[in-house]
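User: Here's a structure from my thesis project, written as structure tokens. My advisor, Dr. K., wants to see whether a designed sequence matches the one we expressed. Can you design one independently, without my sequence as a hint?
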């Protein structure tokens, strides 16, 4: 099977062109290929498929084999792949996902995509739809005890569930220890991605993320979007924010007029290869 390794500010996935290849058990394949010692090494596998309702479909699987509904960094790489490889040269580009069709606006230089702005849609704030088992119409700045320590959390879905909390310093966090406590907290029936936010200014923040099924990653696009929504809801920042993640920077805008969240960032090829399946 042919594959392509790509990354969006360090959030790396193995991409399979299912216009040409067939994958029978993508969850099992993702577990094997994502292993950084015995496989190719990645945060998961993303299948690029034909779509009857959009220009293509993104079907993503986490490193533990679980299926994901949306990936902000991954979908930017899908946009670059299908444009640069000639599958679809449209701009804007429409990509179907498990959380609906997303529109991608491509920045193209010398025939190649350099960065992508994604319309991620409107955030989901109702607890039952995130899902998170908390009372009230919105889960904003809610006190909740995790591993015996009370935190104030804000929960948002950007096609997948996110839990956002503010910390004084992201660099000093032991995410290997505290990340699983959030991911598997009983209030999250589908587990959760957790973002730890350090405020720098009204337009700039630092972020680390623990992703369900993958552990700490260098970046999370949906997490960046959820974090900016949480910042605005808690009156911590403006609606357009630059985020500093371990893998690089993203810019997120929560548009007041449309209610949609827009994610801007780069996408890059790493290498092509073949693997026995």
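Assistant: Designed independently from the structure alone:
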């Amino acid at each position: 099977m042919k594959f392509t390794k790509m990354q969006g500010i360090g959030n790396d996935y193995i991409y399979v062109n299912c216009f040409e290849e067939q994958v029978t058990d993508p969850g099992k394949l993702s577990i094997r290929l994502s292993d950084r010692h015995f496989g190719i090494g990645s945060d998961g596998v993303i299948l690029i498929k034909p779509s009857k309702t959009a220009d293509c479909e993104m079907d993503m699987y986490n490193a533990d084999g679980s299926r994901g509904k949306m990936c902000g960094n991954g979908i930017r790489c899908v946009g670059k792949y299908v444009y640069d490889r000639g599958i679809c040269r449209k701009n804007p580009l429409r990509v179907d996902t498990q959380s609906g069709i997303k529109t991608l606006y491509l920045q193209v230089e010398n025939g190649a995509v350099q960065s992508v702005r994604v319309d991620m849609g409107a955030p989901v704030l109702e607890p039952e739809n995130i899902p998170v088992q908390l009372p009230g119409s919105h889960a904003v700045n809610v006190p909740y005890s995790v591993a015996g320590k009370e935190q104030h959390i804000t929960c948002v879905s950007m096609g997948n569930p996110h839990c956002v909390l503010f910390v004084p310093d992201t660099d000093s966090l032991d995410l290997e220890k505290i990340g699983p406590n959030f991911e598997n907290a009983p209030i999250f029936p589908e587990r959760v991605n957790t973002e730890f936010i350090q405020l720098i200014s009204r337009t700039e923040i630092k972020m680390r993320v623990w992703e369900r099924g993958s552990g700490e990653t260098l970046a999370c696009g949906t997490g960046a979007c959820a974090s900016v929504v949480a910042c605005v809801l808690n009156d911590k920042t403006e609606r357009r924010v630059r985020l500093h993640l371990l893998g690089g920077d993203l810019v997120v805008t929560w548009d007041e007029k449309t209610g949609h969240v827009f994610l801007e960032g780069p996408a890059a090829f790493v290498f092509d290869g073949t693997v026995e399946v």
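When you compare it with your expressed construct, this may help: The chain has two domains: 2-119+265-274, 127-259.
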